[in-house]
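Example 3.
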Amino acid sequence: MKRKALWALFGVVMLEGSAGAQQSSMPGGQMAATAVIVLTQEFCTVEVKRGVWAFGGEVFQAGRLLCPAAEEAARNSFQRVIRMETAPKPEDAGGHLILIPRYVDMEATTTATLVGTVTQIEKRKMALLVEWTATDPSGKILWAQTVEGDARKGTGVKNISHRKLLENATRDLVANSTEAMEKSQEIQQFVKTPAGK
Amino acid sequence: MKTTANTLGVGPVRVHNHPGWSMGRGRAKLGRTALAILALLRVALAGQYADYQPLAASGYPSFQEQQGIRLAVVPLFDRSSQKRYFGLNLLAQGFLPVYVVIENHANAQSAILLRDRIVCKLDDSPPVSQDPQHPRPVPSDSAQAMALLAVQTLNIAGMLNAMSIGSSISNARMNLMKKELRSQTFSPGKSGGGFVFVPVGKGGKSVREVFLDVPVKAGPPDQDIHFNFRIEMRSGK
């Protein structure tokens, strides 16, 4: 228990520093509150397989990008962020809002699309879905929102790789998640309460 | 008429452009252009699926209201509608698409819809009572309860049929993902919706009724309001 509390304190100190740096890039966008973000091992290591290997199937290492992206979205929205791997017990949550991102789905089109019997070349598209849940320290769900990140890329040979596409979709996801949190009436109401601060 | 060099080197050879020949080439060109336009049109149409335009919840026979939260479900049995919105006949693949409409008309409370908490039950037991005055409001004990499948788990083998109607698998899957119902919060005055795909088995012939339990969190108190729907199965036309 002591160890957990020390880690949490360490998290606050480290992340408060980085939150300060974020503030300069997003003036006035942050809520004057602390949020706990739960980034589970499962979320941070999500791998998505699409297609069949023999026909150009791909493995997307989505978790590697989703994990820091979710943290970035939380930092963009809150002045102080504490990162945890598991959801804290009510007595360990320090009265703060708890944010839990969860991977939902991902889909990417291919540059070569079969139209009837003709193969056509078109832009690659990717869509990524993450479900955000915000709870109060007791675990009561205050807000839930599924956020989408989209990306589209050209048809050239260099665009066949999905890495850049995934990066762009994740960037879009950060922007959309930040916006969703900042616009949430339910989160705003909670952070206005003495417990939320 | 034009002159060209003779390959035998005996002087210029006169080549007459036959009017009929010229017209034939023009027709062929026109035909090729038309084919190209047609192909481009098919490309443009590929991966583009119509968006479902829902009515207000109260406009559907399944409409229910509890604590200012309005819900309605709209099953799509029609084959042509399924092809229009999804590019393939989902019912033939074993999934009944059901559109869920939700509106928050409450004054102050928000409504939270968590997609994974929606439960469906299939009743394939023989009919017990046909009395229209007393329709069974809840499924029989033999009904199987299950959580709904997400798009990512839909049968890919079935999706292969999408190719024959002129669309790639990935485009079809992305369209399904974008139209699927999502977990979301409805602040007072907000509305939305999306599709859930109920696994009824190939053709859905053995299933008589589908029961959907859509829980919505609305507080305080933080309790689930359950909206229960009974959908009588029909074969798609």
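Chain A has one domain: 2-23+34-192. The mean pLDDT of chain A is 80.
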